[in-house]
Design a protein that fits this description.
This protein has seven helices and eight strands. By secondary structure, the protein is of the alpha+beta class. It has a four-stranded antiparallel beta sheet. A two-stranded antiparallel ribbon has the order 1-2. A hairpin with a 3-residue loop joins β4 and β5. Pfam families: Med27.
C-alpha cells in the first residue's frame, strides 16, 4: 500500500477505486432516469406496459443498490422506505485521506485568497504565465537541438593562415563614421535645390536633420548613423525649436494636413528599406519627400479635386510620386 501513496495523507489506490465506484454509480443512476424518461412504451396492452415499466424500474434501482455495495439494507423497489448502512463507497472516501497542506508556497499561497478576483485576477494571470513559460522553455529546447544539428562553422580558419594576415572585419552600417554620414547628407543637399538640409548632433554622434522644403513645410529627421529613426512634419511657419533653443523632436504639428503627411512619411520609412545600402535609402526618402513641394498645388490623380474633406491630396505614390487623397489611393 506504500506504493499507492501519491503524497503524504493521500492514498492513490483508494483514490482510484473511489473514482471507479463513482463512475459505476453514475451510470446506474443514469439508467434509472432513462427508465423514467421512456415510461410505459413498446407494449400493446396497458397491463403489459405497466409490468414492463415496473420491471425496468426495479432492475435499475437494484443496480444502484449493487453499485453502492451496501453492507446491510436494501433500496425500495417502487414504494416504501428503507435504510442504508455504511457502504463501500463511504469506506473508500475515508481511506483517501486529505492532501498535505505543507507545500512551500510562501507568500504566493496567499494570492488565491484575494476576494476581488474580477478586479485583480493576479493569481490566475500568474498561473497562465507559468504555463506559457513552460511552453516557451520546451520549444526553446527543441529549437536549440535542431540548430545544433545544423551548426555552421563560420570561423576565420583559412588552412593555416595566421591571424595577422586575416582581413579585418568591415564596419557595419550601424557604426559608420560621422564624416561619411556628413558627406552623404551634403551630396543629397546639393541634389535638390528646393530643399535645404541643416545637420546637427545635439546628443553625440547621432545626426538630426532639419529639412526645409521651399516655403511649404519643415521636416525633423532623427537618424541613427544612416538609418532614419523617425520623422516629424510641420508647417513652414510653425516653430520647430523648444524654449531652450533645441530642436523639438516630440511635439506634433498643429495642423491636420501635416499630421497626415507625418503618418505617410513614417510609412515611407518602412517602404524604403535596404540595409546593405543605407545611403540609397536616405536618397530615395528625400526624393519622395521632395514631391511635397506642390502639396497645395497638385490635384488628386484619381478624383481630380484639389480638396477633399478640407484637405489637399497628402499621399504620394512611392514609385511614381503622384498625388492622391488618402481615401482615393485605394
Amino acid at each position: 500500500m506504500a506504493e499507492g501513496v501519491l503524497s503524504p495523507g493521500v492514498n492513490l489506490e483508494a483514490f482510484s477505486q473511489a473514482i471507479a465506484a463513482i463512475q459505476a454509480l453514475r451510470s446506474s443512476v443514469t439508467r434509472v432516469f432513462d427508465c423514467l424518461k421512456d415510461g410505459m412504451r413498446n407494449k400493446e396492452t396497458l397491463e403489459g406496459r405497466e409490468k414492463s415499466f415496473v420491471a425496468c424500474f426495479q432492475e435499475s434501482l437494484h443496480s444502484v443498490s449493487r453499485d453502492l455495495r451496501c453492507v446491510r439494507g436494501r433500496l425500495p423497489a417502487v414504494r416504501g422506505t428503507g435504510t442504508l448502512e455504511r457502504c463501500e463507497l463511504e469506506r473508500l472516501s475515508n481511506l483517501v485521506g486529505k492532501p498535505s497542506e505543507n507545500h512551500p508556497l510562501h507568500n504566493s499561497g496567499l494570492l488565491s485568497l484575494d476576494p476581488v478576483q474580477d478586479k485583480t485576477p493576479l493569481y490566475s494571470q500568474l498561473l497562465q504565465a507559468y504555463k506559457w513559460s513552460n511552453k516557451l522553455q520546451y520549444h526553446a529546447g527543441l529549437a536549440s537541438g535542431l540548430l545544433n544539428q545544423q551548426s555552421l562553422k563560420r570561423s576565420a580558419n583559412q588552412m593555416g593562415v595566421s591571424a595577422k594576415r586575416r582581413p579585418k572585419a568591415q564596419p557595419t552600417t550601424l557604426v559608420l563614421p560621422p564624416q561619411y554620414v556628413d558627406d552623404v547628407i551634403s551630396r543629397i543637399d546639393r541634389m535638390f535645390p528646393e530643399m535645404s538640409i541643416h545637420l546637427s548632433r545635439p546628443n553625440g554622434t547621432s545626426a538630426m536633420l532639419l529639412v526645409t522644403l521651399g516655403k511649404v513645410l519643415k521636416v525633423i529627421v532623427v537618424m541613427r548613423s544612416l538609418f532614419i529613426d523617425r520623422t516629424i512634419v510641420k508647417g513652414y511657419n510653425e516653430n520647430v525649436y523648444t524654449e531652450d533653443g533645441k530642436v523639438d523632436i516630440w511635439s506634433k504639428s498643429n495642423y491636420q494636413v501635416f499630421q497626415k503627411v507625418t503618418d505617410h512619411a513614417t510609412t515611407a520609412l518602412l517602404h524604403y528599406q535596404l540595409p546593405q545600402m543605407p545611403d540609397v535609402v536616405v536618397r530615395s526618402f528625400m526624393t519622395w519627400l521632395r514631391s511635397y513641394i506642390k502639396l497645395f498645388q497638385a490635384p488628386c490623380q484619381r478624383c481630380g479635386k484639389f480638396l477633399q474633406d478640407g484637405l489637399p491630396p497628402t499621399w504620394r505614390d512611392f514609385r511614381t510620386l503622384e498625388a492622391f487623397h488618402d481615401t482615393c489611393r485605394q
